Amino acid sequence: xxxxxxxxxxxxxxxxxxxxxxxxxxxxxxxxxxxxxxxxxxxxxxxxxxxxxxxxxxxxxxxxxxxxxxxxxxxxxxxxxxxxxxxxxxxxxxxxxxxxxxxxxxxxxxxxxxxxxxxxxxxxxxxxxxxxxxxxxxxxxxxxxxxxxxxxxxxxxxxxxxxxxxxxxxxxxxxxxxxxxxxxxxxxxxxxxxxxxxxxxxxxxxxxxxxxxxxxxxxxxxxxxxxxxxxxxxxxxxxxxxxxxxxxxxxxxxxxxxxxxxxxxxxxxxxxxxxxxxxxxxxxxxxxxxxxxxxxxxxxxxxxxxxxxxxxxxxxxxxxxxxxxxxxxxxxxxxxxxxxxxxxxxxxxxxxxxxxxxxxxxxxxxxxxxxxxxxxxxxxxxxxxxxxxxxxxxxxxxxxxxxxxxxxxxxxxxxxxxxxxxxxxxxxxxxxxxxxxxxxxxxxxxxxxxxxxxxxxxxxxxxxxxxxxxxxxxxxxxxxxxxxxxxxxxxxxxxxxxxxxxxxxxxxxxxxxxxxxxxxxxxxxxxxxxxxxxxxxxxxxxxxxxxxxxxxxxxxxxxxxxxxxxxxxxxxxxxxxxxxxxxxxxxxxxxxxxxxxxxxxxxxxxxxxxxxxxxxxxxxxxxxxxxxxxxxxxxxxxxxxxxxxxxxxxxxxxxxxxxxxxxxxxxxxxxxxxxxxxxxxxxxxxxxxxxxxxxxxxxxxxxxxxxxxxx
Length: 711
What we know:
By secondary structure, this protein is an alpha+beta fold.
C-alpha cells in the first residue's frame, strides 16, 4: 500500500520502510510496471468506495421521493384512490400516529393546500406564517423539506391537530375531497460519513440545484458548494463552508429529487437547505376557540346521556366507549375520533340526525299543533238584546220564548208540495197513470177550460175599469176624490193579482192533467181519448188600438267630476294633464307614466268645482286595469302597511320591465312621447253616387299620334 501526498516530494514504501526523495526516484528504483499496478489498485479501491456511497445516496433519494409522493401528494390521492383505498390509507396513518405518540420522538404534520401570497410566506413575523408551518418532514431522511413556493399554492405546518380539526379531516375523507391529510414525521438523526472521497464536483449549477434564500439579505447559494456536518436538515439553508462531500452530495440528491417530484406535484415547486442541529426545534401553535356546548365532546355529557337514555343498546354502547377512553392508552386523535363517532351515534339515537348514503342529514322537527277536542254538546251563549220602546213587551216575550218558536216552526206549503212531488215520483209508472185516469175526466177538463175563459174575460174587464179610473183620477183635483180613486185602484189591483194567481194555478193543474192523460193513452186500455174543446178566446183583444206604450224619458248626460293626474319625479309630484280628466282617465294616465318611466309613484287628485273635459293627449284606455298587478295601494312604515287613497306605488320587481324603463326615460320625456301620438282619425264611409256624370269641358281630348311605317 503506497500513500501519495499530492504536491509533496517524499514517497514512503510501507513494506520496506524506505523513503524516496521523489516519485521519479521511486519509479526508477522499483520500476514503472509495479508502481502502475499499485497506483491502479489504489484508484480502483477509491472508485469502488465512491460508487458504493453514491449508490447508497441514490437509494435514499429514491425512498425519499417515494415517501414524499405517498405522503404529500394529496390531490393525486383524491383523484386516483378509491374509497376503500382511502380508508386503508387512513387506518395505516392512524397506526403510524399511535406509534409516533407512544415513542415520544414523533410529531404530526398537517398539509394544507391553499393560495397564499409570497410576502406572507417570506415574512416570518406575520401571524399567518405562525399558523402554517415552514417545513415538511421526511421520516427516512430525518429532515424537514420546506417548499419555497413562489406561486403561493401551498405550505405545511408542524403541530398536532385539534379534535375539531380532526373531525373536519374525517368529514373531508368521507366526502372524498381533502383539505389536508395526516402524516407522521420522525426525528431520526441519520449520521453521514465524514470520509473524503472523489473529486470536487465541477461545473455551473443548474436551476434545480440552486437554492432560494427566503431571509432578507441572504444571497442565493449553490448546493454542491456547501454542506452540513453530522446531520443534514433539508428545508433550511446550508451555511457551513467546508462540509464533507457526502453531505453535499446527499443535499444535492435530495433537492434534485424534490424538484423532480415538483414537476408532477401541484404544490411543491422548490426547496432550500440550511444547517441543522442535533435537536430539532418544533414550534407548536395553539389557537383559542370557543367550545360549543351542544357537541358531545366531554365524558360528563356522556354519563348524563347514560342516565337519561331509555334504550338499553345505546346505554351499553356509551358505557363501553367511556370505559375504553378512560382505561386504555389511546392517543389524543383516537380519543377525539371515538368521541366523534359516539356523538353521531347518540344524535342518531335521539332522532336529531339521520345517515343517508354516508352523509349526515339533520332532521327538522316540526312543532306540534294544538289538537282541539270535538264538540259533542252545543254551547249556549247568553245575549242581552236591547228592545226599542216602540215594540210592545208582549210581542218581544212571545218572540223570545222557546214555546212560541217551537209552535211557529211548522212545515210550509212549499215544503208540503215538494213532499207530494217526491211521493208521486217514487210510485211506479202504472200506478201513476191509473191515478191520473181516476182523477181527471174529459168533462172535468172541459169545465176547467170554461173557467179559464171566464177568468180571462174578468181580467180584461178589470183592466178596462182600471184605465177608466186612472183617467178619472187625472181629471179630479180634490184630495178626497183622489184618495177614493186610489183606494179603488188598490182594491182592483189586489183583485187582479188574486185572479192572476188563481189562473196560473188552474193553468198549471190543467197542464199536469193533460200530460197525464196523454201518457195514459199509449199504456192503459180503456183510457178515453177525448179532445179538448176550445170555446172562446183565452185573452180578449183590448179596444182602442192595442196596449199603450209608456214614453221613455231620455237620459241627460251629466258632466263628471274632474281629476288631475300626477307622477313623482325627483321627490316631487309632477302634474301630467292640462285639462281636468275623469277618474278613470286620470288613473290610466298616471299608471301609464309610472309603468313607462323611472317614476315609481302615481297620484290622482279631485279638482274642486271643475268638471271633466275632453283630454288633449292620447290616453291609453283601460291601462290601469290591465296592469293592476304591478302596483300596490299602501306604503310600509316600520314594517306596517298604511293604506293610500287614490295613490299607487309600483312594485320593486316590476320597476324595470317596459321599454321606457329600460331606456331610463324620465317623466317629462315619457309624457312628451305620449303627447306626440295623435288621436286616430275617424273613418267616414262615403256613399257611392250612382247618378254621377263627368263634365265634358274638363275632360281633355286625347290626341292620336300617328306612326309612320318605314318603307
